[in-house]
């Protein structure tokens, strides 16, 4: 199953995308605009996704152009008795 969340907000510079899922990571533009946050949300989500053998990644065409975050989770198999 794939889930994509997309916004049309502040976007990310290319060098910020790789760091987005690190603990306490925040986009420079979020800090500059004094947008609140601790930089833990996507770090926690990454842990949950990876615990379920999934993959998470982000894409942004650049600053002021929004961001897309994609989650890919494997299909669960149903155990039968």
Topology (elements, then pairings):
Elements lengths: L1 E6 L6 H4 L10 H5 L8 H11 L3 E5 L7 E6 L9
Antiparallel strand pairs: 1-3, 2-3
Give the biggest sheet.
3 strands, antiparallel
End-to-end CA span: 25 Å
* CATH domain class: Alpha Beta
What does the average pLDDT come to? 87
Describe the structure.
The protein contains three helices and three strands, in the order E-H-H-H-E-E. With 81 residues, the protein is α+β, with helices and mostly antiparallel strands. It has a single domain (2-72), classed as Histidine kinase-like ATPase, C-terminal domain (Heat Shock Protein 90, 2-Layer Sandwich). Strands 1-3-2 form a three-stranded antiparallel sheet, covered by helices on one side. The mean pLDDT is 87.
List keywords for this structure.
single chain; 81 residues; alpha+beta; Heat Shock Protein 90; three-stranded antiparallel beta sheet; 3 helices
Entry summary:
This protein has 81 residues and is of the alpha+beta class. 25% of the residues lie in helices and 21% in strands. The chain has one domain (2-72): Histidine kinase-like ATPase, C-terminal domain (Heat Shock Protein 90, 2-Layer Sandwich).
């Amino acid at each position: 199953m794939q889930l994509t969340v997309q916004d049309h907000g502040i976007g990310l510079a290319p060098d910020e995308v790789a760091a987005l899922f690190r603990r306490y990571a925040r986009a420079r533009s979020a800090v500059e605009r004094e947008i609140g946050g601790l930089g833990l949300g996507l770090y926690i989500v990454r842990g949950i996704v990876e615990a379920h053998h999934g993959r998470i990644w982000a894409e942004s065409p650049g600053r002021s152009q929004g961001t897309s975050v994609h989650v890919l989770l494997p299909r669960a198999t149903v155990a039968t008795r």
